[in-house]
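Notes continue from the previous slide.

Worked example: a multi-chain complex. Inputs as given:
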Amino acid sequence: MTATEPWVPSSHRPPASRVLAAWHQTGRSDLDAHLATHGPLPLPRRSDGAWADRLVEDVRAAGLTGRGGAGFPTARKLQSVRTGHRHPLLAVNAMEGEPASKKDRALLSGVPHLVLDGAELVAAAIGARQIVVCVADDRDDSAVCVRTALSERAGVGLSRVPAQAERPPGRYVTGEESALVAWLAGGPAHPQFRASKGTPLTMKRRPVLVQSAETLAHVALIARHGPEWFRSVGTPDAPGTCLVTVSGPLVNPGVCEVEFGTPVAAIFERAGITTPVSAVLVGGYGGTWLRTGLLDTPFAPGALATVGSAVGAGVLAAIPTSSCGVAEMARVASYMANEGAGQCGPCVFGLHAIAQDLVLLARGEADSHAMNRLRIRLDTVEGRGACGHPDGLVRLVRSSLSVFARDFADHARQRPCTGWSLRPILPVTPSAATAVGRWH
Amino acid sequence: MPIAASRYRLRVNPVACDAFGYCAELVPEIVLRDEWGYPIIGDSIPSHLFELAQRAVRECPRRALFIESIPSPSR
Amino acid sequence: MSSHWLWYTTRATGIVALILLTGSVALGVLTSGRFGTRNWPRFTLQDLHRRVSLLAVVFVGLHVVTTVSDTFAPIGWLAVVVPFTSSYRRLWLGLGTISVDLLLAVTISSLLRQRINPRTWRALHWLAYASWPLAVVHGLGTGTDPHLGWVIILVVGCVAAVLGALGWRLVAGWPVHAGIRVTAGATSVVAVIALAAWTGTGPLRPGWAARAGTPASLLAGSKKTEGTQPASGAAGPASRGSSPSPTTSLPPPPYHATLQGTITRQSLSSTSERLEIKAETSGSLVAVVDIVIVGTPDGSGGVAMQQSRASFGPQGAPTQYQGQIVALDGSRIRLSLADQSGSPLELRVDVAESGSQVSGQLTSVSGSGGERGFGDGD
């Protein structure tokens, strides 16, 4: 792996270097570098129930929460699949459906062995007999990294459980857990309707544990160093570190590891802001906007929740003041409208209608009822899909209405807003971008 | 006369629903339709409408409706 | 068992079943297109669709049972479910069999709807669409009544109803599948034109019964004379008439048949006697002939003809041809008749008396008009 990949800034050494330690210290991602940095895999020759209990307890004590976006306590998730009679399947979620996130790519190309260590440990703890590493079908380089690492491990007999890479379709909604499981079971990658949230995911009656790649990396470190070490950084409520993808008008955009509790502004300072910023997109395209006045909020689940935000997928995308928030939202909304599974009427029609409203507003072609109509539609669509996809966009659009209130007011009155730059900031796939067309 | 709310609510599986709208015709007191024809369902089934709600569940061409008991507030 | 009422019931239930099936298909198309009004909400139309369908199935069942029970035509129970196994109009009946098979599949799957895979149910229900056109063609091909005006109007009405529903569905449907809908619309129009063309050149033309595969034994006439369905004329417009069992139409000439009947004499006055010969033909031609001669008796049992009147026709329309005697020589009678539209028919009747019974022969004479003497050849 070259060290010039833009998303892993090797020239920039963040203070926190746990998950990315091997990459930062050696600049290599192979097995030797990994073992030299972290030591051997702490998996006993015979992993019995007592060892599994200890590992799960360590994870619980460490307070590790899912890094995939939901932030669910990992120990509880592990425990929920240990109770069944059938051997569960472990699915590593490295799908990275968020266009603005690059951390899965960073993990797989920089420190794949740490992720696979975590997968091996969790598989042993839950009694899984198979590991599936899910890499999107349009991320061939990440798949190559995974397969290379897997064959390295197999070469030295490090793989206890058969593991292979799978390539589900690279759409936004495929990263949703139930969609991934549906695809693994042989069907289309569509989220499944579950009458109650807690229903465990199964594939032909085998329970499936879906864990994001970063979470597994943290498990691999907790198994080596223990929960107290894990808690030695971060905050008491949000211990440990987290990978974030910072983007925007920065000197050093890319993936970096931050301790929970670091103020968002500090994260951007380290990354080197070059122009004034109007707001920051936090979490992902299902997240929220943070206005500049609140950028000293600590980056941690609890603190962000007080300002209506969440960690999400660790996306921190800054928008320069020269850009137009309405235009950015129009592009993101069009993208999200196209990226649903197309199963639920309110999501299919609602998100498209919301995107249309935003496009008209961005173009300055909206009528006087546009804002009202948009708000009503946001209320109508929320909560009426089978998965969280529509809710995420609704959340993002609502927060943009308040953070970019002035821009929206200008556009609604068909007046030019303060954002004059036509250069798109937030990344979306090309097909969705062309659907929006020109504005301003 | 106060309308007694039962302990049950109507719910829809949005994946199965194809906006036929029989539910909105049978129990318009509980089910409204959004601008695209999909059901917006109220919080609970009034007791006097329970049988009609059951009929709506039976008649749904996609079998998308179901009745469940309202979970008691947790935490 | 073979009697009128089985045959009537078969035809009647067939027609009613077709109407009900039409209603079911039309309602099905409307409900799938989410048609509904304030007074006819969608769930009501769906309920109606189910009930009409069930009623249609009942009438189809009656139609099938009476057809099989009627031993006149060789249709057995096997032909009900296995297509193209009956020797009566194999193709057209077979289409009806396929229609019944599809109906059975739809009915059973709908009754078990809650328990079977929704996709299976959907697929079977789509197949049911084919059941209706098969029933229409079956009715036109095997039915004995297509030549009747009201039956044609009925079939046209049924096709129009389904076309109307389909038309609404194609026009009012969601714009997403425009390509499929245009194709479906074009296919339907082509199908209806083809149906009309086939009906006009097939079932509505004379001779359809033979071309459709009615067994020869039925075409050639049956030995039954108890008022059961007579055989269809060899090339008549329909294999059976629509009035009570006797035919209402004759096969085209030439006729050559034996006669059997009665002769009655009635004295009108001292110098006038009325003779009436009523006879029926048997064999390949089943008709009645009625000859009345009024004249002066010649003392030896004959009369010198002064007036005459004659009629000839199938049992159901015995006075189809009317006219009079143009030549009388002993027991040989030459009749010149014409039907209501003026088509002429000349018959030669040779009878022999024995008491009040007569027997003889009836032969048609080729050529028309003109009074010719005997010996012109036949």
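Summary box: The longest strand of chain A covers residues 206-212. The radius of gyration of chain A is 22 Å.
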